[in-house]
Amino acid sequence: MTKRKIYKIIALVVLVPVAIVLLFFAFIWGSMTWNKYSKKREAIRYQKEVCDTIKTIDAQFELKFNGFSKKDLSQIHFFVKKDKTIERDTVVNFKPADDFETQTVSVQFEKLVIGDELIVYVGKRYYVLSDYQYIAYFNYGMFGPVGPCQCGATGFQMLNGKPAGSGWLIKKYGLVNYKMPNR
User: Fold this and answer.
1) What's the rounded Cα separation, in Å, for the pair 133 and 33?
2) Domain extents for the chain?
3) Which terminus of the chain has a smaller tally of CB atoms within 10 A, N or C?
4) Count of CA atoms in the C-beta half-sphere (13 A) of 2
């Protein structure tokens, strides 16, 4: 055997396993990419067919208040504004459990309609929350999505007519001269 034939055999012995390993990893990468693409398409479909059709909110969500004193937070007024009138209201007597600057309070309505506005009066300031949304999402595990697509609440996207989807009511952003609608 010549040197050339020996090099060809060695190259073949090395290249075939390398090619098999590369094909294996290419298959795994392609499978993961396809899975990601199909899950993204499923989430878009689920958003249109399910999440965008939700008309009511289970109003047992929480709002975070920041920058208020204990006295400011002692009474929190919630109003539901439908069209241009106040439809419902409630008052929460709140006593903070700790001395943290940020306090969490649950909204005290059973159900709200997606198009309603929630007006919160606390510490002589008004907060008008609107544009409540749901978004399609997957639970992700170590290797990708686990389980079916679900709708999750993103909260109010508008605060006092400006985009602010955090769910935090900060004292300095409250409206002082807000005119409450009629009942």
Assistant:
1) 29
2) 1-49, 55-173
3) N
4) 3
How far, in Å, CA of 89 to CA of 45, rounded?
A: 36
User: What six digits make up the tokens of 75?
Assistant: 């009474």
The span from the CA of 154 to the CA of 52, in Å, is 12
Where are the strands (E) in the chain, listed by range? 56-58, 62-66, 75-82, 85-93, 102-106, 111-113, 117-122, 125-141, 144-159, 162-163, 168-170
> Residue 5 and residue 77: Cα distance in Å, rounded?
89
Query: How far is Cα 169 from Cα 108, in angstroms, rounded to an integer?
Result: 16
Q: Which residue's structure tokens are 């055997």?
A: 1
Amino acid, res. 24: F
User: What does the pLDDT look like over 47-65, one tens digit per residue?
Assistant: 999 998 988 887 677 888 8
